[in-house]
Amino acid sequence: MLRSQSEEIQDDDKVLYEQDGQIVTITLNDPAMRNPISERETVDAIVAAIERLNQDGTARVAIPTGAGSAFSSGGDLRAMQKNFESRAKQPALTTQYCKFGIQRIPLAFEKLDVPIITCPDAYARLGSHKCNDAASGRAGEESE
Question: Cβ neighbours of residue 16 under 8 Å, at least 6 residues apart?
Fold first, then answer.
């Protein structure tokens, strides 16, 4: 669930959307698990935040960040393990999960018109390293 600065922010929201003037901060908010991005709810919330950012004519820059000690640990292996048996029996489920799940994040970033400022020192995996490369390039830095 996404909340703006003027709305009450709940500690259980997986993604926080906060705006201060022309700056938007999108925070992954599951610090106890190091902000994994493998649950459908989290992916949906990230994509919704990116789409909201792109539609907001007042936002001039966005900063993705993570609550706690890490931006994101990547996937939650425990959650992924729960689905392993069904995906092993039907490998197409993994393809569908990626296509209609986590891969929606880099596709949303690709459509984004608002520059993203990333912290190069942060440990980050957002669906793909291409997300951070693309975001850095949009902020005026050259990707390597």
Answer: 2, 3, 9, 25, 26, 27, 29, 67
Identify whether 112 is part of a domain.
Answer: yes
71/31 Cα distance (integer angstroms): 9
What tokens appear for 48 in the block? 């919704």
For residue 43, the domain's CATH number is: 3.90.226.10
Q: What range defines the domain where residue 133 resides?
A: 15-138
Query: Per-residue pLDDT tens for 78-130?
Result: 887 887 777 788 888 778 878 888 899 999 999 999 999 986 544 444 443 44
Q: Distance between CA atoms of 125 and 129, rounded to whole angstroms?
A: 6
- Total domains in the chain come to 1
In a domain, 90, yes or no: yes
Highest mean pLDDT among 7-16, 52-61, 121-130: 52-61
Residue 9 lies inside a defined structural domain of this protein: no
Residue 118 lies in a domain: yes
Reported as a single tens digit per residue, the pLDDT across 14-36 is 999 999 999 999 999 999 999 99
